[in-house]
Amino acid sequence: MNIKAFFLYTSILLACISCKQIPVQSATVSAPQWLAKTYKHVIMIEDEHMVKLGENYLVDIPIQEKPDSVYAFFLNADIPIERLKKPSNFYPSINEFILIVPDWKYYKIIAEEASKQGILIEPLVTNNYYHITRNGGEIKTDSTHISGNGHPYISYTEPEIPKGMLQVYYTDSYGSVCCPRDPKWDNKQDDASFIKEFEKNKKLKITDTYRQNNGKEGEHAIYYTLSGLTSLQRLSFILEKKSQGITNKEKKDIVFAPQIFTPHFVKIEKEGFRKMIKVN
């Protein structure tokens, strides 16, 4: 039985059985000022919400990112905490968030002790709380550890796609065709062949892709919604598309720094110069 399953199993049985408790041995400290008494609209991240290829992750939860809002996440998935802090990775437009993480080391000790003694031991609810702020390349982190009483009240939410927004997994941006010329234009013809080859190899279709003009010198963006694909297929597309222009791509090496990818939203423009045009 894995640790998460054990924790759930013991939580259910404890409603009917009187058991021994083993607390975390830590000094009592006052709660930091940033820790709220209540967190509403907490977003749960579980293993089912993420996929991994190599050291790259896709957290497939659509969130409308607002730089001036504070978000709260409960991490119940196997993702390195340090990777979530990087502003170029996990929901890059979110500048401040609370990360709540169960103390799995403590729960492992409880599970081992229960197995050794052949009894049911009640674990105290034990979490690590992180306050993470990101300002450009500067990252600040504070944390606190709570076991037993004193936890904030938490209620969860499932993010929804807001009206008038397009859910996007990958954006290809092209600059000016002339003044100065964006080097990406030299390989523009490779896009169609890449899509065709990817569809053939993966036995799928890339659909619901949109183009939007951003300037009068050919500047535009291509938005890939990757609708109908599984999370693993989406991550595979993102990685292969990012490596499309890398010189050693024939070796099929992913040479850019590992990332945590997340979907984002783009406002749908239905008229005017920046009207979005469906390309497939």
UniProtKB/TrEMBL annotation:
Q: What is the name of the protein in this document?
A: Lipoprotein
Q: What are the leading ranks of the lineage? A: Bacteria, Pseudomonadati, Bacteroidota, Flavobacteriia, Flavobacteriales
Q: Which domain of life is it from?
A: Bacteria
